[in-house]
Each structure stands twice: as C-alpha cells, then as structure tokens.
Design brief:
Two copies of one chain form a homodimer. Chain A is built from 16 helices and 17 strands. Chain A is of the alpha/beta class. Chain A folds into three domains: about 170 residues, MoaB/Mog-like domain (Molybdenum Cofactor Biosythetic Enzyme, Chain A), CATH 3.40.980.10; about 80 residues, 2-Layer Sandwich (Alpha-Beta Plaits); about 150 residues, Maf protein (Alpha-Beta Complex). In chain A, the strands form four sheets. A six-stranded mixed β-sheet of chain A has the order 2-1-3-8-7-6, sandwiched between helices. In chain A, strands 14-13-15-16-17 form a five-stranded mixed β-sheet, sandwiched between helices. A four-stranded antiparallel β-sheet of chain A has the order 10-11-9-12. The longest helix of chain A is centred in the last third of the chain and has 21 residues.
C-alpha cells in the first residue's frame, strides 16, 4: 500500500463524563467512523471543563496525531470553555459568523422563543477557524488547519455531533487527506456460539488475504462477523469481498440471518412480508418480549396480528385450550404445552405461523427435573408444529432475550425450510 | 472540611476500545465508584496495547493524580502487555504468586481443562506489587504503592474488574487514605419533564446546604434526581438528607415512584403485591412492551396474569369485544376503543386492574386529525376506567417506551388514589 498511516486522537471534555454520570459513547462512535475511512485512532483522552486541562491535552495530542477531534463544551452556557480555549490556543479572536447567526435566529423564531445574548454568542467563532455547519442544533462545529494538523471541535450532544461529523467533517477530511479504500461488511449469525462458529470457519478464516481482516463481535444469542478490507480500487475490493462472503454462506449459511444492520426480527418480518404470510405468538416465559421485538420493526402490522401472553396457567387453559391434563401430567414447561399453545394461537388468531414459549426464567421455580433456565419453544404452521427445549442458564434477563431470539430463529428456519 | 482532595486518573488499555469496536463502560463505572467515596477523577486516558503508550500515560498520570487505575491487558495471551510494562516501569521482576497459582490450578481442574503454560503465567506477578485477588477469573489484580502514589491494575473483563475493585481495591484504598463521608440518594420521578420539575423544586433546590449537591439525570419518560452529600459524620448526614427528601415529597410527591434503583415496573409490582391485586394488559401500539417490562421483574407471576396484544383490529373486535361501530366511528386510536380494551381484558382475564394502549407509533399512519405520535392509554379497575391522550412525537422507539411508562404511571396513581 502506498498510503501513509493517518493518526487521530479524540479529546472528550466534560466533568459529568469524567465522574461517570454520563457514559461517553461519542468517542467510540467517532473511532468507528474514522476506522471506516482508514484513520487509526491512537489515543483518547477525557478531561474536565478546564482551560488548562484542555490546553495540556492539545499539546500532548499534536505530538501524536495528524487529526485532533474535540467533543463537548460548546453549549450556550458555561460550557463555552472549549471555544474560548481554542481561540486563545491559536491566538485568534472571536467574531460573528453571519451564516450561523442567521441559522440560530431562524431556529429561535421557528420555536417562537426570544433570543437572548447567550444564544447570539453561539454565532461567535474564532476568526481562524472554518465553521462546520450544525443543522441539528445551534452550536456550530469548528475546523482549524494549523501547522499541518487538523483540529475539529464539535458539541457533545450525540445527534448534533454525528450530523456535523458525517455531513461536514468527513467530506473535508477526504479532501485534505488521501485515504485508502476501506470496505466493511457485516455478517449476522445466530443460534451458534462464538467458539463453535470459529471452529467451523477456521479454514475459511485462515485463507483470508492479509488485506482483509475478520472480527468476531458477540452479543446475547448472536455473533456478528465483521470483515474489513483495505485496498486501492473500490470495485475490485468490493467484488473480492462478495466472493469471500459467498464462500461463507456455503459453510455456515443456515446460521446467517442477515447482513450489515439487519436484526433477526427485521429479517423474519421481511420473509413473512415477501411470502405474504401472517404471524401470531403465545408467550409465557418471554412475557411479551418476542411481540415487542417484532413490533419494534416499522411496518410489522402488515404481517403481525397479535399475541396472547399467558403468564398464568388459567390463561393457557381458558384462552389457549391447553388441557388441564397436559398441565397436570407434563407441566406448563413441556413439549405438549408449548406445542398446543402454538397451534391454538395460530388457529384462534387465524395466522399462517405462530411461535410459543414456556420456561423457567427464574430466579425461582427450578426443579431437579426442570432446572432453572429450562425453556420449551414451539413454532407452528398449517402443516407442522415443531418444538425444542433449551437450557438458557440462570440469568432471568438473558433467558428472556435468548429465548426470544431462538424462537424467531426457529421461525426463520421454518420459513426458509432449512 | 478537613480533607485534602484525593485525585484519581483512569488509564484504559486496548486497541478494540480505541477504534470503538467495544464501548468502554469500565472507566465510567470506576468513575462513579470513586466519586461515591469522595475521590475526584481528574483525567481519563485510553491507549493502545503498546508498552511505550502505557509508559507515557503513566508518566503523565503520576503528575496529576494520587491514585492511578489501569484496566485491560491482563489476559492470558498477548494482552499481558500491561503486567510486563508495569514490571519494567517499577524495575521489578516477575515471580510466581503461590496463592494465585493455587487458584488458577483449581479453576482449571474444576472445569476439567488441561492447564498450559500461558495459564500458569497468570500466577506470575511483579515482586513489588501486592496481589488483588480475583475471585471471578484467573487474571489477578495488582496494587503498587510507589513514591506515595497508588497504582491499581485490573483485567478489562467488566465483571472481573468489578469484583476486584469492590472487594479488594476499595477496602485497601480506605485503609490508605482518609476519606470524607459521602452519601448518595436517588429520587426517581416520572411523567414530568426536566424543566417543569426544575421549576417546581426551584426554592427547595436553592435552599440546599452547600455540602449537598443535586444532579438531574433524565432519560426517556423519567428524571432521576441525585443528591450527593459530603460530611464527617455518617448518621448526621444521613438524617439531614432524609429530611431534605421528605421535604421534596411534599412538593412533588405525586411524581416520585421510587428511590435508589427502583423502576416503575418494580414499584407498581410492589403496590399490586402489597394490596394482593392482579393485573392484565391489552396492548396495541406498545406491542407487548408493557408486558415485557412487568415480566422483567422477578416474582411478577404472583400479580401479572397476562395480556392480549391486539395488533390487528380483528383481534380488538374478536378477543376484546370492541364493537365495529367504535372502530368505524371513532377509530382504533380513540378514548372509546382503548377504554373498552381495558375493561374487556380485565373482565376476560378476571383481574383487579388492567392497562390498555392504542396509538400511532409510526413512521406511517398519521392523519391531520390524529398526527403521528397520538396515543390513547386507559387504566381500568372494578370501579372506574380512566383514559388519557398524549402526543409522543415522531420517533417509534421513544413513543413505545414513553407510552409504556405513562401506562404504568397511570396505574400507579390509580393504586395510590392520587
């Protein structure tokens, strides 16, 4: 590769973050965005709202990095410390920026609020900087190009920062530096643990060319595989990565439910929508969480009809026709019960498919026979009903989450006939 | 106060965190714990897995702080960089710690796994340090007391770090330094915005003594008020804060649903449990989220019976007896529909109370009459049914969340008769 490594440092400013009152998510997000365009983050610093601390951080940063990014301390009140510090640091002086003043005035008049002096001050920026326009708020971003180092300062409110960084800062950085081509692809898998997955794709992983790196990003019930490719020609690299992903489908295709930002509930929803099929659920131990996941997807009302949350056994009997003999002989956490729940909700709500769950989420309720974490899940269609059992462990929250994802995955497999 | 301000700095080590692949939650947590015992975090740094970067960070930190806390880079593999760096930094040499070796050996034999050299290496620590025992894992924490500065190094896995810090590091810090008495109290409020709340409690806030500070911690649908008191006598300070909180109840008692770590679903559950009453829900726009919140509380099966999620109108008609005339005349998002839903689920599931929701979560479905975000919520008991309407704005996720919390709060008010 003919590119120099471009280094960045992120300085976050704010007392509330320092003491942990607010968790800093900005610098992780900025780190990800920079790594997408091929910039290496070499250092991150978090300092208090004090001029001296900010100046010290700037002095240290400029010895380590080409790009120095500051967030926080650009609000309308006391927090203006960042702007004043940068103004002094670069021996500049504050002046009204007419474009920003016009924007701030417009925002206040739209909201029918009076504009006071502290608001007008937001349009004052150091003369030496270029303004990075903030279309999500009143505090502008700032761009300083001094001694061949780039300094970018943005407000700390996450959605304002993200707008400025994406729409203003990244395009300017691309003009200033020659970046390599970087392509990231994400493959979403479920129902297989990280170590089993790693074992299955070991050969494929070893065969990856050195300019394409793999990362495992596990969360409850899911593992994301992220491929990061580095090259000089976008189309060529893109084609190469497509072939590598196709090969992965041959090895672990059944575990892959989507790519990039897909969620399991979105992928299942798309399958239902495409096939013009409907879904209902009958939930016991998941207590509405499957229904919540499904209905968190916009447009889900076109395929999702509804649910009966049968948290008590009477509801299983009265509303889902689970015979008392089943409950007495096999218990509520059984193949018989959960299969009946799935079949009955499908018939009652007149849907093509149904998912049902019943289990012991805890912390109480475990027995020798059925220890804490025992779960039964059933999926039913007009032609078949399948049921499976799992042990989800002893954490209530994780049991609910994993059961919901396994239920959705069983439906996905039924829809795809795999 | 007779205490000197004790300052701490947190150094986080790890490439994955630097590029944002993992969000650093450790240093926020440590910051909170330190602030609870009266230590000020003055700086946080995040560096790569490189000896030079760690040494630079240590050199800078010891000029700023009394306590330097490192996390990350203490695993069994390449990450051992932190331990080696600290060993060199303090001109010490590695030696086997028998207690740690015994522990690591025991863990491996319990798991019936062979122990390889890299695992044995975990029992090697710099001779100059004291071991902070890790009962949650194999990598020990380390405590260095050099030139009157304390250096604490811990592995990056959050639950291991938390165990070591809470059980080993904090008690040792309390022996080493004389801390002031610090008491934190949290007051949980809902159904009132931050600025309205601030207005209501303005006088109370202004009357707070200077050694008791107030922080507003808002999230969707809720505002936490955190009081942090500083003193010399625990009982005296505790009593003083109790009186201040009691005074707050007189001003905004109706908005306070709990204290400390209470959640609205937990507080409502406790009220139901105490009164020996039962609950059911009928959810449309919240799609199971209320049910999920309620059932996320352990023990909820003693008062929560279940729900009908009537996402489609047919379910509202067939299962909840909502007349088609109601749907045709007033629509599904109406006082008439949501009141009927609440009454019918209460009767059908034979419960004392019921909550029902119906609204337009979006992104589609808004009309001139009923714009996006219009929501109706009803709460029904055996003696009354009340319904209220809200506009929750245009974000689907937030509309679902806020509607669920408002529904729970309406029930809380009915249970308390306020």
């Amino acid at each position: 590769m003919k590119f120099n490594k471009i280094k960045a440092e992120i300085i976050t400013i704010g007392d509330e973050i320092l003491i942990g009152q607010i968790i800093d998510t900005n610098s992780s997000w900025i780190g990800q965005e920079l790594s997408k365009i091929g910039v290496s983050v070499v250092h991150r610093t978090l300092v208090s709202d004090s001029e001296q601390d900010i100046v010290d951080a700037l002095n240290e940063a400029k010895n380590r990095a080409d790009i120095i990014i500051l967030t926080g301390g650009l609000g309308p009140t006391k927090d203006d410390i960042t702007k004043l510090t940068l103004c002094n640091y670069f021996n500049s002086s504050l002046a009204i920026n007419e474009k920003v003043l016009e924007w701030v005035t417009k925002i206040f008049s739209n909201r029918k609020l009076p504009m006071i002096d502290t608001n007008k001050n937001q349009a004052m920026v150091p003369e030496i900087c270029e303004v990075l326009f903030n279309k999500s708020g009143t505090a502008p971003g700032m761009w300083f190009d001094v001694d061949d180092k780039i300094y970018i300062s943005m407000p700390g409110v996450p959605f304002e920062m993200k707008t400025i960084f994406t729409e203003e800062a990244i395009p300017k950085l691309k003009q200033k530096f020659l970046f390599p081509v970087i392509i990231h692809r994400t493959i979403q898998t479920t129902s297989i643990g990280e170590s089993f997955l790693a074992k299955k794709i070991e050969d494929w992983e070893n065969d990856l060319p050195s300019h394409i790196k793999l990362a495992y990003l596990p969360s409850v019930g899911q593992v994301r595989l992220r491929l990061s490719g580095l090259g000089e020609d976008h189309d060529k690299l893109n084609e190469e990565m497509k072939i590598i992903i196709t090969a992965l489908y041959y090895i672990i295709g059944e575990y892959i439910f989507g790519l990039e930002d897909d969620t399991l509930q979105k992928s299942v929803g798309e399958l239902l929508h495409k096939k013009n099929k409907t879904l209902s659920t009958a939930e016991s131990c998941t207590g509405g969480y499957i229904s919540h996941l499904i209905t968190s997807v916009p447009g889900s009302s076109s395929y999702y009809i509804g649910s009966i949350i049968s948290y008590s056994n009477e509801i299983k009997t009265h509303e889902l026709n689970v015979d008392e003999t089943i409950l007495n002989t096999h218990g509520a956490v059984s193949k018989e019960c959960v299969s009946k729940m799935a079949e009955q909700i499908r018939i009652k709500f007149n849907t093509d498919y149904a998912i049902a769950t019943s289990g012991i989420a805890g912390p109480d309720g475990g027995t020798l026979d059925k220890p804490l974490g025992t779960v039964w899940i059933a999926v039913s269609s007009k032609t078949e009903t399948i049921a499976r059992t799992y042990n989800m462990g002893d954490n209530r929250e994780r049991t609910i989450q994993r059961t919901a994802l396994e239920g959705l995955d069983l439906l996905r497999r039924m829809l795809l006939e795999i």
